[in-house]
Specification:
heterodimer; A: Rossmann fold; four-stranded antiparallel beta sheet; 8 helices; globular; B: 284 residues
Chain lengths: 262, 284
């Protein structure tokens, strides 16, 4: 279980990037963080990855407070961020310093096969296309068998076809070890394709507006009606999150109404 | 001709595959003859000047024709004088380059990797850099004598600053995004330096060393002007005092060849370190 307790982040210049985030993510769950720009999605991910420090509150993984980069947490950035001086193979093996050479080879080759780039193992990153580089970056994160995998809009720079194929590669890798996944995205279709739950965030200061369970069965068919309905629900929530007039989400008002009814 | 190759490539299955995915070996084999175009201008000027002197249109006393320069060069080479002078100059540059380069790398690394050290070192070094290096000559002669030590010291000073600036700048400009990759995988400071910072600064480091070497050749001339009995710079001064422009030009040509050769060797030696680079450097 990955939990956020009263998590806040205020930057040195006074910007309140996150304010009182409370959320828990079940093991093996895929949660999509969606929201307009500047609502703190990426900040939240950087806090979990240990690249930034929270101003207040805590992030706990199985009860253990995360206070820096953790071996059980892997991240895929928005850009591939491959090390240009390492071959594709060595890039994937970058985080596998501690395992034996034979095991490293086996794990990297398996990951390469899973992302369909086995024949490129000995090439330089510069020789690969953007989509291929991002696949390598996903493989690099998966190969250490993280319990929590963070994805920071990893597909946003890719065209729709490449994106769809990367979704499949990602789910293929996820099926194997079923890590908890926190996916930041601004693409509602992507959220509905991949996630078990969409968390809609609201800017200024960044906070959670609403949570929508996405209980469609896998594999998901994008042409079916339930898919479309889910997309519409998330879009509506997003729309409301960006309108200042809706100060409180529907859920909150329902709760108050329920209280009155008693 | 090349059209033929292209057509046959398109018409055959194998050729089409080769065109679609040109191999590295194929790229290396293809030689662009246009690089020879660069030789056209100097050779044309040389031939014209030679013809002008032969036809009696010019005297060629102060600007000797190429044939006379090469005769002088040849004579110097035959008596072995050229090699003694070249070796002397090369020795000075190499020793000065190694000392100045190492110092530049060490100080550059220190000032690039720690803000405290940068605050401590950088202002002083920048102030020293503002001094024209030739201004050190009298002091170095007083301190180190008129023999090799003062010359090597001057060259080392000349090499030091571009290397220092290049290395420090390269470390400061390492992509934060790549450093974060190292942080996510929890590399220690030492490992971060070895696995991310070091390879990331290599390309700029090589450029810094190359400009350092270039300045080393510049300063060896200055050093040899200030009283030497051997070296290509001595040949220059000697040629001036004896009124032998052909000897001066011969020494200049030797300098050009030596400098180019040293630079090419440096590039060749460092190429394995930066072959991953995604740039057009290979074509330059």
């Amino acid at each position: 279980m990955l939990t956020f307790e009263h998590l806040s982040k205020t930057y040195a210049d006074g910007t309140r990037a996150l304010s009182d985030i409370n959320l828990s993510v079940r093991n093996g769950e895929i949660v999509a963080l969606v929201g307009g720009s500047g609502c703190g999605k990426t900040t939240l991910l950087r806090l979990i990855a240990g690249l930034d420090r929270a101003s207040a509150g805590a992030i706990k993984l199985e009860g253990e407070v995360l206070s820096g980069p953790h071996p059980s947490v892997g991240i895929v950035f928005q850009e591939p961020r491959l090390l240009p001086w390492l071959s594709v193979f060595d890039n994937i093996a970058f985080g596998l310093d501690h395992v034996s050479a034979a095991e490293r080879k086996a794990r990297v080759e398996h990951a390469l096969e899973k992302v369909g780039l086995s024949e490129h193992a000995r090439r330089w990153p510069r020789d690969l296309s953007g989509g291929q580089q991002q696949r390598i970056s996903i493989a690099r994160a998966f190969v250490t068998n993280p319990k929590v995998l963070l994805l920071d809009e990893p597909f946003s720079a890719l065209d729709a076809f490449t994106r769809a194929s990367l979704h499949e590669h990602l789910l293929g890798l996820w099926e194997e070890t079923r890590p908890t996944v926190v996916l930041v995205t601004h693409d509602v279709h992507e959220a509905v394709t991949l996630a078990d739950r969409a968390v809609v965030m609201q800017p200024k200061p960044g906070r959670i507006f609403d949570e929508l369970p996405l209980t469609l069965s896998r594999p998901r068919d994008k042409t079916e009606l339930p898919f479309e309905t889910s997309v519409r629900r998330v879009l509506t929530a997003l729309d409301h999150s960006l309108k200042p007039s809706h100060q409180k989400p529907q859920r909150e008002r329902d709760r108050q109404a329920a209280a009155l009814w008693w | 001709m090349s059209g033929d190759i292209a057509t046959s490539a398109w018409s055959s299955q194998q050729g089409a595959a080769a065109l679609a995915a040109p191999s590295l070996a194929g790229k290396r084999r293809a030689f662009d003859w246009r690089v020879l175009l660069g030789f056209f201008l100097p050779i044309a000027v040389a031939i014209l000047w030679e013809a002008a002197v032969h036809a009696g249109l010019a005297q060629g006393r102060l600007v000797p024709p190429p044939s006379r320069i090469f005769v002088t060069l040849w004579a110097l080479a035959k008596t072995g004088e050229l090699w003694t002078h070249t070796w002397m100059t090369l020795w000075r540059v190499v020793v000065g380059f190694v000392i100045g380069g190492l110092a530049g790398i060490v100080f550059g690394a220190l000032s690039g990797s720690s803000q405290t050290l940068r605050r401590l070192l950088d202002p002083t070094l920048q102030a020293l850099r503002a001094i024209p290096s030739i201004a050190w000559v009298p002091l170095f002669i007083l301190w180190l004598g008129i023999f090799e030590a003062s010359k090597v010291a001057l060259i080392a000073v000349g090499v030091f600053f571009p290397v220092y600036l290049g290395i420090a700048g390269a470390i400061l400009s390492v992509d934060r995004k790549l450093v974060e990759v190292g942080q996510v995988f929890r590399l220690s400071r030492a490992k971060l330096a070895r696995r991310i910072l070091l390879p990331a600064v290599l390309p700029e480091g090589v450029i810094a060393l190359r400009s350092g070497l270039g300045l080393g050749f510049m300063f060896v001339v200055a050093a040899e002007f200030m009283g030497a009995s051997e070296g290509l710079g001595y040949l220059l001064v000697d040629g001036q005092q004896m009124g032998k422009p052909d000897q001066i030009l011969a020494a200049i040509i030797a300098f050009a060849l030596l400098g180019k050769l040293a630079d090419s060797l440096l590039v060749l030696a460092t190429r394995p370190l930066v072959r991953w680079q995604d740039t057009v450097r290979e074509r330059l």
